[in-house]
Amino acid sequence: MATTPSPNTTTTSALDAGLIWLDGSLVPHEQATVSVLTHAMHYGTSVFEGIRAYETERGAAVFRLREHSQRLLDSAKILGMRPTIAVEEIDAAIVETIAANERKSCYIRPLLWYGPESLGINPTKNLLHFMVATLPWGVYLGEEAVRKGAKLMTSSWRRSSGDILPTKAKAGGNYVNSVLANQEARENGFDEALLLDKEGFVAEGSGENVFFLKDGTLYAIAHSVNLRGITRDTVIQLAKDMGTRVENTMAVRDELYTADEVFMVGTAAEVTPIASIDRRPIGAGVAGPYSLAMRERYLQVTTGKLPEYDRWLTYVGG
Ligand code: PPE
């Protein structure tokens, strides 16, 4: 059942999913199926997480597992779901699924969703299900985007405001916004989309938080509509520990155009340098040195090479 993840996979294949945790047991992915009347499929009523496990000297280790499991439950609460699963049980299911698939490293996708018991918007009769999949997933925007810096496009799709969709929840339905923005960027020859809010303030990428560096200060884009990124939090702590001055800020897009460096962060994207936005070069128009150094540092932390950050790792083998 074990598959060896290729470090170059920019896309995933369900065929690599192996054993999936489904409502309390591990089943082969072909058998982990749901009804076409699944409420979540019709209305986007699911909440999910994206987590990574990295190969370390002590075997696979999950990065900031508890924070992700807790955010999954927070997302469920925002949607008014009533999961009976405890945060410790989510942690345990994730660790067990990684171990069963003998993953050295992987991307982890837990999902809570409403089942097929009743059609119609009101989900009160629908049962809540829980699954965990583990997949090989390499560099999110591709090796080249990391080496040369990714090309960003300001999306014509705006980030939903918090009174339209609950943007702090990683809810399935919210991600139609991200899919549209990412699709538009890719179809126009860019690597990723940058989403603004209705007023033109920078929000985030389709699946990443944004940072920029100007005159030696690192600015972390802060916007109430953004997901409270766990990678963002990690990078802020790493930057401070590296002696960088860090400020949370709102910004308009021209502040990014004129930054010395821009990079995006997320569990899947890790730390991805940005070379250009709307065809305007950022700094020298290449992956910037600070961004690359931060990427390197992040990967050292996640792969257990820096003992002072060991508290963020959950070793699958105990
Ligand atoms: N904003 C959005 C909208 C988002 O989806 C993510 C994660 C982040 C910020 C960064 O959050 P964090 O992972 O906690 O640092 N996006 C996930 C989904 C990517 C996908 O293609 O699916 C992820 O990175 O796992």
Task: Give a verbal description of the structure.
- The protein is an alpha+beta fold.
- The chain folds into two domains: 14-135, D-amino Acid Aminotransferase, Chain A, domain 1; 143-302, D-amino Acid Aminotransferase, subunit A, domain 2 (D-amino Acid Aminotransferase, Chain A, domain 2), CATH 3.20.10.10.
- It is built from eight helices and 17 strands.
- The protein has helices at residues 39-43, 65-78, 87-100, 143-148, 175-187, 230-241, 253-257, 289-302, and strands spanning 19-22, 25-28, 46-48, 51-56, 59-63, 106-114, 128-135, 150-154, 192-196, 202-205, 209-214, 217-221, 245-249, 261-266, 270-277, 280-281, 313-315.
- The strands form two sheets. Strands 8, 9, 10, 11, 12, 13, 14, 15 and 16 form a nine-stranded mixed beta sheet that branches.
- Helix 2 (65-78) crosses helix 3 (87-100).
- The chain is globular.
- Ligand PPE binds next to helix 6.
Shape label: globular
The bound ligands are: ligand PPE
| Count of runs of 4 or more consecutive helical residues | 8
Low-confidence runs (pLDDT<50, min 5 residues)? 1-8
Distance between the amino and carboxyl termini:
21 Å
**Overall helicity:** 25-40%
Give the DSSP E fraction (strand runs of 2 or more residues): 25-35%
Radius of gyration: 19 Å
Q: Can you write the helix and strand succession as a string?
A: EEHEEEHHEEHEHEEEEHEHEEEHE
